[in-house]
Protein: Ribosomal RNA small subunit methyltransferase H
Amino acid sequence: MHKPVLLHEVLEYLHPQPNENAIDATINGGGHAEPMLEAIAPRGKLLGIDRDPSILKETKERLKKFGDRAILAEGNFANIATIAEDAGVLHPSCILFDLGFSSYHLAPAKRGFSFLEDAPLDMRYNRQDSSCTAEALINHAIPEELERIFKTYGEERNAGRIAELIVRERKHRRIQTAKDLATLIANNFPRDRLHPATKVFQALRIAVNDELTHIERGIRDALLLLAPGGRLAIISYHSLEDRIVKYFFRSQKETLAILTPKPVAPSREEIAQNPRARSAKLRAAQKKVV
Structure:
């Protein structure tokens, strides 16, 4: 079961009310969507979006008790405006983005998101979106491109050395699985607080799915969709995401009232119960009524 991060805080800042409409732009397992649907009863509708059809299948089962008030759509949240128009959910009062990838991606070892599993280096959220995989990047990208990806998207201080290591290794064998890549890096770089492959895996996931570009598009169009007085909440998990959200909110000071002058972090209790929440940051804002 997907554990929703910062659930209490999300509900506090979004403050969903009876009969309002809402959008969960990254519905994952429905952990945030379920209490939001309860709060906007009896007539409020929630549109839930996810790129991964396998996640939507399980989420649909979880939310079936809400009937046609729960509307699920497969798609990229970068296209939130078109998806919302097609679903008939216009001018919502609450929009949530939880930018972390779901625990569903880690549970079945099929796509190489986790370096703890012996799974193919795929890393696409939706295999229909693109033919580019992490394996293709690792085995074919030039050293300079690998270094750029690791440095830009992973903020990895050993980006150049790791890129050189990968290029040397692939001359002898194709690097095919998450375990192959993680073991290669772990055998050549000392373990710190984090596994030495952590930032490389983050960088590859972001590059394969073009995540940062989609965040900019998605939150920009979400603001246009949002009803006057509506609330927007965004949970990020690393500095690259948080920086985009922070500067976007600041750039919209004529339109948005920032509700979180500093990002809200999870409590120690939540981190103890759900270690994946430890890096989460929540920022929220309200659309001004002109």
Remarks:
- Residues 109-209 form a domain with the DNA polymerase; domain 1 fold (CATH 1.10.150.170).
